[in-house]
Amino acid sequence: QVQLVESGGGLVQAGGSLRLSCAASGRSFNNYFINWYRQTAGKEHEFVASINFSGGGTGYGVSAKGRFTISRDTTKSTIYLQMNDLKPEDTAVYYCSAKRYLGGVDDYWGQGTQVTVSS
Length: 119
Description:
This protein is an all-beta fold. 0% of the residues lie in helices and 52% in strands. The protein has strands at residues 3-7, 10-13, 18-25, 33-39, 46-52, 58-60, 68-73, 78-83, 92-99, 108-109, 113-118. Strands 2, 4, 5, 6, 9, 10 and 11 form a seven-stranded mixed beta sheet that branches. A four-stranded antiparallel beta sheet has the order 1-3-8-7, with no helix packed on it. β7 and β8 (78-83) form a beta hairpin. The radius of gyration is 13 Å and the shape is globular. The protein starts with a strand and ends with a strand.
C-alpha cells in the first residue's frame, strides 16, 4: 500500500522556521516527482515546490522562492520542506503528493499537516 505521511507542522511565530517531512512508502519512487502543495479553506491547492526523487532537480512556486527549500533523503525515502521567514499568509494545510510526470495528475497524496503562522 502506497503511503505518503506528512509531519512537522505546527504553530510558529512570523519570522520563524519549520521543517516538514513526507515519508514515502509502498513502492519505488524513482523517477517520480514529489510535490508540496498547500491549501486554505475555500481555495484550491497551491503549488509550493517539487523535487525529482531520483535526480534531485527542484522547482518552486512563487510564494516559496527564496524562503523554502525542498530536499530529499533517498535512503530514508523522505522528502523535506524547509520553510524559513514564515509569514501569516503561509498558514495552510500542507500536502505532499507524488506524480510520475510533470504536468500530469498527482497519483498519490498524503493526509496533510497544518501549519499556522501567528503575527
